[in-house]
Amino acid sequence: METIAEQDIQEIPLTSPFFRAKVARFLEDNGIRPEVLDSYYALQSSDGSLIAGAGLAGDVVKCVAVCSALRSEGLLTPLLSHLVSQAAAKGILNLKVFTKPEYRAVFESLGFKLLASAPLAILMENGRGLEEYCKYLSQFKASGVIVMNANPFTLGHKYLVERALCYEGSAGQAAGSAGAAPTGHLVVIPVREDLSDFHYSERLEMMRRGCAGLASVVEGSAYQISSATFPTYFLKDLSDASETQMRLDIDLFGRWIAPALGASVRFVGSEPEDELTARYNTLMKEMLPAYGVKVVQIPRLESPDGGIISASQVREALAAGQFARAASLAAESSRPFVMGALAERALLAELNAPLKPGLVGPDSNGAHSDMDYKLMLASIHALRPYWARMAEAAGADQLRSLGIAAEEAMLAATGGVNTHRGAIFALGLALNAAFLALTRPGLDSEFLNSADPSNPRDTQLPENQRIIQIDVSKIAYIVLNNSLKHNELHNTPLSHGQEATGKFGVKGARQMALEGYKQLFEDWLPYYRSLNQNEFQIQKTLLRIMSTLDDTCIIHRVGYERAQQVKAEAAKIAGQAGNDNDAEPDTGNGDMPDTGHDTMPGANNSFMAGAVNSAMRDAIGHLCAQYAAEGISPGGAADMLALTIFINSILKTN
Questions:
Q1: CA separation for the pair 341, 319 (Å, rounded)
Q2: pLDDT in tens, 195-211
Q3: What is the C-alpha separation between 129 and 223, in angstroms, rounded?
Q4: 70 vs 44, 75, 278, 588, CA distance in Å?
Q5: What does the DSSP 8-state code read for residue 5?
Q6: Are 471 and 433 within 8 A, CB to CB?
Q7: What is the pTM of this model?
């Protein structure tokens, strides 16, 4: 074949569905599973068919293939050389590649060196990344090592650390500070991949706090092999992928990580439930002694109900909106992050619900021309780091400063669009008040004991609810008083909410906070709970809030009189009359037509339920179209909906 010129190698435009499908077919024809890639470089024949290609995902070379008829033509070397130069032009100077052992010589000719090997794959890189990481690790001399993901850090993880310290030959304590090089004997390495529910920075902070005085928690790296970086494309069977990944990880640890730390023991928790993790433990016991590393398996900590404590149990509790259960299993250092995750969950629950009149959702931009679902999602993600810090803020001044910083992060993420300012204020107060209740002597047991199935309690936890309300009011008073002084000093203009409050005498966000969100606890929260398992729980709660709240966002947009009409319209569709608390809509009103069927004992009521749901959907949809056309957006109600969902998760026990 003729010598390949630089211009013969082309980048395939993966943004095009046509070319993406073309690359996928080429890979599949060569026995390779397509993967998500940032870029793909290829050689094509005169008829446009791909004959060789290689992709890049982050700093990892993936999906390298040459068609079978031309594998002896030397196409791989110039192709990979081009990819390396393109990566360098993008600032990626340290590339990793997982490839078949038979390709080792090709990559070595391009400056790659072997990091780890397994029967079906090898790991190589062309920079000094692992060497630099090992140089960093050499500051932390340790006889024992634990590698953990801690998503999040639980009482079980802390138990593993404590038991490892008691192991003969590994006794001694290490300073847990992040900066200095400790002199202790136990090091904890976090898995760095950021595909977990809790971000790497959060998990690292949980571990460092939870292991303070016990072990040194070091920075993780890309050299703990993860699902984010390990490509399975060249393996014949997906079951081979897991085994190969584990073998590479263990080999790399034995060759590089353990010697850098001077470690002779690796501690692991027993795994009675997950077959993959159990196999990983078995492989470590088989492989690591060859590198002078003993594997010690420690039995897992049992939970009060007789099972084992695991991070997955905490995540399940969070998914169910059960803070008490999650907090009872998480280490103390993790609790503000657990609370923060619930705040984000509440915002996502509000955003992800369709059929919200005037509001942005997955189905519509509502009444907004400056916001869409993607922008709202970016805002929520930008706020994530601030929730845990707000929860444990030491005083109202610090909370206010964090709120300002959160607003700045929001505006930076949205290009200056105010997406969640009201939610930052409300959730910040609630987070801080709830965390105070959790950490106040005596009240912590109220929260945590409520998670014990053998200790049934009132699901509303009235004492904790009362304390949270009082603390919200107290914190709000100080925050708002300091804010008022600042605004007077700097001659800050009134907000739209303040203008509406002053002009029409309605309760704005500030007054509701000073009252400890009385209306939420006495009306919206009980109503939300009454709709449990209802298809329209979020939508109907939103309508309930809209029908009882003087929403200053609506008043600012369309005036006070139209805002009062909006309240009546929301009440009508929700099936409410005055203070009626019925969970089901009135199917006889103008917007919810009578189906002509009676709900009688013994009758087939499934048709009735379907008709009611269909009528409700149609009625809300009509209101969505109307408010989008009029520019009516109940932003204040949306904030209160998210707050209601969050408070429910804090107080919920089952």
A1: 10
A2: 789 999 999 999 999 99
A3: 9
A4: 12, 8, 42, 74
A5: P
A6: yes
A7: 0.85
